[in-house]
From TrEMBL:
The lineage of its organism: Bacteria, Bacillati, Bacillota, Bacilli, Bacillales. Pfam families: NMT1_3 (PF16868). CDD domains: PBP2_TtGluBP. Keywords: Signal. NCBIfam families: TRAP_TAXI (TIGR02122). This is TAXI family TRAP transporter solute-binding subunit. Residues 1-21 form the signal peptide. PROSITE patterns: PROKAR_LIPOPROTEIN (PS51257). It comes from the Bacteria.
């Protein structure tokens, strides 16, 4: 009898241990971006609602953003990741910053989110008025290997410039803003949803200007890189920028590891898209089901597709 009780207890113990181990494997890491951008606070909001509604624990992790995030998915150090649609295409094709990596096929799309606007930021008292004026200036193009870095390269190209024409720096959003505030940097490219926290804070302290991109240059950029769209940053998006600013945008999106189960990704997708009004960031208002496939050129994960099919999204 005692032997039987012992075996039952041992079986229960082993079962609980196994369940605990299985549970721990369902802790999802969301790779976001720098703390001064849009990905990080949005990712935090998503993590909260996934934890509350999908039966798994999710946490947001600050990262170097788009390109790094895709490598984190590949290396299984993240499960969900924010990226730009152009960067996802580069990874799938093994081009640009992924030439050495080769094609990465370990991720699929969860869905598109919102426009990510290329913002060229200078201090309010700067004499820089055009992209052409960046020649010879101290310019940050975002974290190394980031989507912002490629965007900056392509925009400068439209003006007949390369990184060699600037005093190049590669700083995160938050570090770029601080460097401008401290007078150590003349301009910074930032690709993020507007309003961007780092720019909002800089506007409130030092004051900022957002440098426009000329219409003919926008046409040239879109002709060569069709994932860009012409964008207008509304007047007063930042307190020291009372006028509209014309620039370009790419699309932000969420990726997931391909090997995550259909059921899990379905629950995650449902938790995100049924709580967009509670994500705690102004950009969440632009996350809509009717545009969730817009600009998505890579395969959708079956779990996300199941949810979108239920909602009639095509």
């Amino acid at each position: 009898m005692k032997k039987s009780s012992f075996l039952i207890s041992l079986t229960l113990f082993l079962s609980m241990t196994l369940l605990t181990a299985c549970g721990s494997s369902q802790q999802l890491v969301i790779a976001t971006g720098g703390t001064g951008g849009t990905y990080y606070p949005l990712g935090g909001g998503m993590a909260d609602h996934i934890t509350k509604n999908a039966g798994v624990t999710a946490t947001a992790q600050a990262t170097g953003a788009s390109a790094e995030n895709i490598r984190l998915l590949r290396d299984k150090k993240a499960d969900i990741a924010f990226t730009q649609n152009d960067i996802a295409e580069y990874a799938a094709a093994g081009t640009n910053m992924f030439q050495q990596d080769g094609k990465i096929d370990s991720f699929q799309a969860l869905g598109a989110l919102y426009d990510e606007t290329i913002q060229i930021v200078v201090s309010a008292d700067s004499n820089i008025k055009s992209v052409a004026d960046l020649k010879g200036k101290r310019v940050s193009v975002g974290a190394p290997g980031s989507g912002t870095e490629i965007n900056a390269q392509q925009i400068l190209e439209a003006y007949g410039m390369t990184f060699d024409d600037t005093q190049l720096q590669r700083l995160s959003f938050a570090d770029s803003a601080k460097a401008i505030q401290d007078g150590k940097l003349d301009a910074a490219f930032q690709t993020a949803g507007t309003p961007t926290a780092a720019i909002t804070e800089l506007a409130a302290t030092t004051g900022v200007k957002i440098i426009p991109i000329d219409s003919d240059k926008i046409d040239a950029i879109i002709a060569k890189y069709p994932y860009y769209v012409k964008t207008t940053i509304p007047a007063n998006t930042y307190q020291t920028v009372p006028e509209e600013v014309t620039t370009v945008s790419v699309k932000s999106m969420l990726l997931v590891r391909s090997d995550l189960s259909e059921d899990l990704v379905y629950k995650v997708t449902k938790a995100i898209f049924e709580n967009t009004d509670k994500l705690g960031h102004a950009k969440a208002k632009e996350i809509k089901l009717d545009s969730v496939l817009s600009g998505v050129s890579i395969p959708i994960h079956p779990g996300a597709k199941k949810y979108f099919d239920e909602k009639g999204v095509k």
